[in-house]
Design brief:
homodimer; 192 residues; alpha/beta; Alpha/beta knot; two-stranded antiparallel sheet; 26% strand
């Protein structure tokens, strides 16, 4: 099982955003939707062994965490709007601090990064880490930031996490996930 | 300079599609928009040395080819809708068989795969090719299909093209582009 978590610093935490304007009204929800796509889609198949966590930190009710389960999700298409529609559907579901399934395979709870860090041993994907191709072994949980850098408070929480880099260029979060999954696919299939 | 060309078998060739329904009314225009994103975007930057050709083969006026120039394009954001809006803007521009700039850095002409094959030495990205990590050198132009396989007529045109594979899993076209660009980035930066 591989897990990705992406922090959406400005991502809207109620349904008051428009699917016609995910970047603006959604607080760059488009970034998070592309990360769901990169985490879960194969050609004509889903990655059933991947979970994708979206940590929504924006107005008016953040933080909340949405979990897309690759094993359980239904009604998800690859386009941004499809993932956005599922977030919009689940985000207003009353929830507490435990995950509640609010659409098939899509779960919601209150709380953000600190809670999630207590549950997984995350590695950080950023430009300054160990090359993923050089690592003898790779972890099974990775955390990324959206279009903004991690805040100082987040960096403090992530201080002890190992760091890995996907390559020499600074990439979007979804592209980084795609490159990392390719490396994991190769290791699993012994394509060295 | 690196070029990508993606065949959109059903992609709409006039402006009669809705930005709110790129997959349906656009004939899977969402796939092509994600390929534009994968081809051109770095974090807070564009890949100025990449061109992305969309070969639109759908109703009512196909084939047409739209070229996004990484060096010249303006007003392009990473979300699918942004690339879709540029296609919708240029697609009804009167054009002949030569590229005409119909938005900044976005060009349109009549004609499809056969014409483009006469201008670039394309390699095909599919599951059965040589592993891109194993190739001594990589070409600078790559062709991919959308969610559908190449047709028999396309396969006949592509018969003599070299073939490369991005990994052991069958990926979406945009994910394949991302993985390939990572390999090219590593070679350029001597990250071996």
């Amino acid at each position: 099982m591989t897990s990705f978590a992406i922090i959406g610093h400005l991502a809207r935490t109620d349904g008051g955003f428009s699917l016609n304007d995910l970047p603006g009204s959604g607080g760059r929800m488009d970034v998070l939707c592309r990360c769901v796509n990169a985490s879960l889609f194969l050609s004509h198949d889903l990655r059933r062994n991947v979970d994708c966590y979206l940590i929504l930190c924006g107005e008016p009710a953040g933080p909340k965490t949405v979990k897309f389960s690759g094993a359980l999700v239904r009604s998800l298409s690859p386009d941004e709007r499809s993932a956005g529609a599922l977030v919009k559907k689940v985000i207003d579901t009353p929830c507490g601090s435990e995950f509640r399934e609010a659409a098939q395979g899509v779960f919601i709870r209150k709380g953000g990064l600190e809670r999630l860090l207590g549950e997984h041993r995350f590695a950080v994907l950023d430009e300054n880490g160990t090359d993923i191709r050089k690592a003898a072994e790779l972890p099974d949980a990775f955390i990324l930031s959206d279009h903004l850098n991690f805040t100082e408070a987040e960096e403090a929480l992530l201080r002890d996490c190992p760091r890995y880099s996907a390559g020499p260029k600074c990439l979007h979060a979804d592209h980084t996930i795609t490159v990392l999954l390719n490396e994991l696919d190769r290791r699993t299939a012994s394509w060295t």
